[in-house]
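To: structure desk
From: M.T.
Subject: fold request, one chain
Message: Could you run this one when you get a chance? Sequence is below, nothing fancy, just the single chain.
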Amino acid sequence: MPVPVSDDTPSPLLLLLPLLSRVLAPPAHLSARLTKTQLLIVTALSYHESFHMSQLAAYLSFSKEQATRAAAPLVEAGLVERFAQSENRTRVFLRLTADGKNLADELRAQFSSQLKACVSASLSEPEQLELREAAETLVRLLSKI
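Reply: Done. Structure tokens follow.
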């Protein structure tokens, strides 16, 4: 069963992506193969069991057509699979394959490493503590939305 996601509400954490994308970049071997949109789809699917195409588009603030076009190469590459549920075969869902989950884990580790390096190089110890506390507060508050 897919994790319920509202069709019209993007994830609040995705509002941070433009800011974080200034300091985070996908690994070079992936950026040549996958678009930013495709990397976002893999990341979104790593946090949810599955999405139907309208949910995915709303979650990422894309058009349904953009999400569909971006997902097709992920399916062809074996990173994502399409499936339908027996109770409603007209809705097509997406979920990560084992290779897709491995890719998502790699992305998460890479982004975490980059962010830690950027924070360490750019902020003093007190500023790092302040950022850590602010991030914890932000995550706590956004989880209530």
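Reply (cont.): The chain has a mean pLDDT of 81. Let me know if you need anything else for the meeting.
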